[in-house]
Each structure stands twice: as C-alpha cells, then as structure tokens.
Fold these 2 entries.
Entry 1:
Amino acid sequence: MTNTIKTFPLTGVAIGPGDPELISLKALKHLQQADVVYFVTSKIEDNLIQSFSKQIIDAYNLKVLCKPLLFPMLGKNRDQFYQNAYQTLKADVKIGLRVCMVSEGDLGFYSTFGYILKLAKADSLPVICIPGIPAFIAGAAQATTPIVDGNYSFINLALPESFNEIETELATNKAVVVMKMKVLSGWFNFLKNIKREFVYIEKTGTTDEFTTSNYMDLENRKIPYFALILFPKTESLTAS
C-alpha cells in the first residue's frame, strides 16, 4: 500500500504596510499554524538579513521556522530569483509542510508574491491568498483623509514618467495616488504650483512615518523609496 503525503496549499499572507497590528485575524492565524514562514529579503550578507517584512513578523513572536527568500532590488536576473524562490516554496509544499510566504501591503498590489502566484498557477500548485492593507489605504487613514467618494474616479500611478503625466490625470477630476514617486525630482515646485490638495506619506506604519499636506515641508526633504502622495477628490459638504 502506497503512503500518500497530504499536501497543503501554498499560502500568501499579506501583512500590511509596516504597523504589525495592521494584519487580519485570518492572516495571523495562518502564520501561527504554519510549519515554515518565508519572508522576502533584498540582501543576505555576513549572516545579516535586510528585510522589511521580517521586522513586521518579528512582532508576532511566531513559534515556527521563518526563512528568507532572496530578491535583490535589481532588474538583472529577476526572473531567475522568482523561479528559485518558487521552487523552494514548492519543494516544501510537496513534502507536506504548511508553507506561508508573507508580503508587505496587499498580495495583489505591486507585491512580490504576485509573481510567485503566477508561477504557482501556471504549475497548477494550489494557492491561498490572504489579503492585506496597501500603504496608500493605511496612509490615508493615518492622515484622516478620504481618498475618493461620490461619483469621482480613482487612478493609481506607479513610477510616473513625468509631472505632465500626473497633471493630465489630475485635470480629469480624479483622485490620484502616486506610488514610487522617488523616480521624479522637483516635487516641491510641482506641488507649490498645482494648487491641489495633497497628502504626502512616507514609511507609513513604521516608527519613521512622516505625513504632511504642506508643500513647504518637502522643499529640502529627501524622498525615500517607501513614499507616496495622495491627491484626494471628494464631494464638498456644508455643515448644518
């Protein structure tokens, strides 16, 4: 009689933008019940692991094995790193382990797990996805600012090519979120001249979080990778 190994789906777990408390009960439950939890790291050097995800999950005091998956922040050989990571995850699934991979923000929104998900689906490997809170949603909440309401539309821009691209979208009367805004320089002058309400947020959910709606605060500020800007579009209400 052949013994069949019971396998469990590969589980992607979104852990939010930085604040460890911004995780769903379902997500935390999956992490606590896992046999192994994988997190993304951009560098492993001299036993030092550089990982934003690990900083978040360390707060949960998980009693399970937590292991890194290497994804350098470089365009070169990216596909190979995704393939290597997927094969590592798949191997653990195939031997019957409950395998989770965590990802910051939400799994379907500029997430590393999104690439793993494509490989798993192409390979017919069962997958479960546990959603999370993306940075712009958390940032708007932190700034107590609605992003969009009424009949207005919403658009997200990532790695914009120019300020003209952003102005074009703003002119269509939409709420606009710009992510990875670091690719453009000159934000101070742009915000000074467009006369549009905005909220700038960097490193949301962390101890280094900074939020402002005053363009003067950005005159000499160095914008980091984890920074975004919201241009809300909401209906005007008159207080009774």
Note: The chain has seven helices and twelve strands.
Entry 2:
Amino acid sequence: MTTGHIFIATSLDGFIASPDGTIDWLIQHTNPDEDHGYDAFMAQIDVIVMGRGTYQTVLAFDPWPYALPVVVLSRSLAAEEVPTHLAGQVRITALPPRAVMAGLAAEGYKRAYIDGGQIIQAFLRDGLIADMVITRVPVLIGSGRSLFGPLDGTDIALRHLQTQSFPSGLVQSRYQIAG
C-alpha cells in the first residue's frame, strides 16, 4: 500500500488557514530564505493527494507549484475539467481515501504527500498516515480551518521523533504514527 505523509504548517492556535481558506498569515510570518526541510521532504514523495480546498488555493498560484502528479479528492469537482495547462498532471476523483491509496499502489506509487485539512483528517481516521511534520508558526489567528478534527472516539497515538526550532521562531515537530 502507498504510505501517506504530512508536511504542514499551523498557527500556534492550530489553524492551517483563515476562515475563508486563505494562508496570508503563513506567508506574512515565515521567512522564505529559511530552510524548513520542505524540499528534502518532497524529494522522498512520488505523488500528491489533496482536497478540493487546497487544490483551489494552489490553482491560483503562478506558476503551478508541483512537478509531481496530483490527485484531487472531491465529490463536487469530479465532473469538472482539469485546466488545459495541468492536463496529465492533475486528476480529480471522488473515491474514498482507502481506494485512492490502493489505486496509487497499483500504479507503483510508494509515498504520497497528503495535503488539506479535511483530507488529512480523513486519512488519519482511516489509518493511512505513516508520519507527520508539523511546523508551528508563532502567530495566533483566532479562528480558521483546524488541522485536526473529530476522531470518532479513537485516539491516534503518536511517537515523537524530533523537534527543531528556527531563528524565525518557527517550531517543527516530527511524529510517527504509533501502531
């Protein structure tokens, strides 16, 4: 089975985006010249799996930020055409997480970067995440889209691997899903 991996930033109060889905606070409070390990993380990834909200956010980026294939999980976008300039690189599916990962494994993909709050939550609930890198940005935004949500009464035990702080004040922790 393809393994799922998370690399994400949150505000100190646990939000990955503002209520409207924007990430302006992240851009304003991070130093683009500081290496937080994203490139090293991406060098180990074969494919990206993201939700509709994340897709719609990065779709506005110019240029498109990914060289790897992207799978977008969305029931509302399933019939929508992928923009011409992304044809062959982006596909949209309404399949559930477990079926997506089984399909990726059948295609030979080994490691998937899982991105987007609700998608991360669904993959965690289904036991499809192997490890997480969570970077906390020293800003409180008060409300927004939470990284973690309800777990349906099942705790997910984590094993702390490492925590690193950066001169900018960012604190990055690495966790492995235990068991």
Note: The mean pLDDT is 93.
